[in-house]
Design goal:
single chain, about 325 residues, mainly alpha, 17 helices, about 70% helix
Length: about 325
């Protein structure tokens, strides 16, 4: 037999038992060891002993956060979750709610990206609470909307409430200009949850917010969406009331106002063909997708036609820009 020092045997042993070590595995092992060391150091900084009488939450928070990042990069989600949770607690005890919020937001994003969207919303909400404590309403609202977008349809009421809370946070801090998009998100969620009456109220709040921000050019489309929703409910009385209220708002005029009037008139006269034609008007295509979809399915209410008194409820701007005028504009 050959002696143990034989080169051929050494070569055979190396090849047979796995070859050279994988650099990536070795690197991951080193990073994991570093993360574990950081976790131990953080725990040590927050544990009293005979030689440590004061707790160093700042140092612990930094170590926990570094460990969380390492775990995340190595794909160790459970360990990263624990580290981020502990980092948020440490930041909070150190008096840094903003940094605690960032930890929760990063954790929520990590969970979402790794197929855990069922638990991510609650973590986003935790982040929003920390942002609120640090007086950061914009970040608070952003996290609430992110949470709302992840919940299943069976939890739509919770999603609606979270978006409402986001709107309130922005309105209460006089950041109405940032709330406009959230109003739209809220309307979308309400319509997809089959809550058109709530959506109408939200759109009315959006009208007030738009007036407050001096954006009259946006009001005609919002008004058109309100009337479409009223008619989709088969309620021409409500549609008339909202129309009259809208006519008192500066900016509600022109072709959208005229189309609103024509929609109500067609519904009252029980003219299904006319209502279907108006529901496909080009102006409808500029409404949000959910409203435009409802407009294409409008049906006249049950009951006999309603005869309007001569000249009743026709604002001058609508009379001047009725359907015939809109058709002429479309052909030019």
């Amino acid at each position: 037999s050959l002696p143990p020092s034989s080169p051929s045997i050494r070569s055979t042993i190396v090849v047979t038992f796995g070859g050279p070590p994988d650099p990536k595995m070795a690197g991951d092992a080193a990073r994991m060891a570093e993360a574990e060391k950081l976790m131990k150091e953080a725990k040590k900084a927050t544990t009293k002993s005979l030689t440590r009488w004061t707790l160093d939450w700042d140092s612990a928070a930094g170590d926990y956060e570094k460990a969380a990042l390492i775990y995340s990069n190595c794909g160790r989600v459970p360990q990263a979750k624990e580290a981020y949770d502990l980092a948020a607690i440490a930041h909070d005890k150190a008096g840094n709610p903003f940094l605690a919020a960032r930890c929760m937001e990063n954790l929520a994003t990590l969970l979402k990206d790794n197929g855990q969207s069922d638990v991510a919303p609650e973590v986003y909400v935790k982040a929003s609470v920390f942002f609120a404590r640090d007086n950061k309403p914009q970040q608070q609202a952003d996290c609430l909307v992110k949470a709302a977008r992840l919940v299943p349809a069976s939890q739509s009421q919770q999603a609606i409430q979270w978006i409402k809370d986001g709107v309130d946070a922005l309105e209460d801090s006089d950041r109405t200009h940032l709330a406009l998009d959230l109003y739209r998100s809220l309307v979308q969620q309400q319509l997809r949850s089959n809550r058109p009456v709530d959506a109408i109220q939200t759109l009315k709040s959006l009208v007030k917010a738009t007036v407050k921000m001096s954006q009259p050019s946006a009001i005609p489309k919002i008004g058109l969406e309100i009337i479409v929703l009223c008619i989709s409910l088969g309620d021409t009385v409500l549609a008339n009331r909202e129309f009259q209220e809208l006519c008192g708002v500066d900016g509600f005029r022109g072709r959208e106002q005229a189309l609103c009037y024509d929609l109500i008139a067609a519904a009252e006269s029980r003219d299904q063909e006319r209502l279907a034609e108006l529901g496909k008007d080009q102006l409808i295509t500029f409404c949000t997708v959910d409203v435009a979809r409802l407009a294409k399915k409008l049906a006249v209410p049950a009951g006999p036609p309603i005869q309007r008194p001569g000249g009743a409820a026709v604002p001058a701007s609508a009379a001047a820009g009725g359907l015939h005028a809109r058709d002429e504009d479309d052909t030019n």
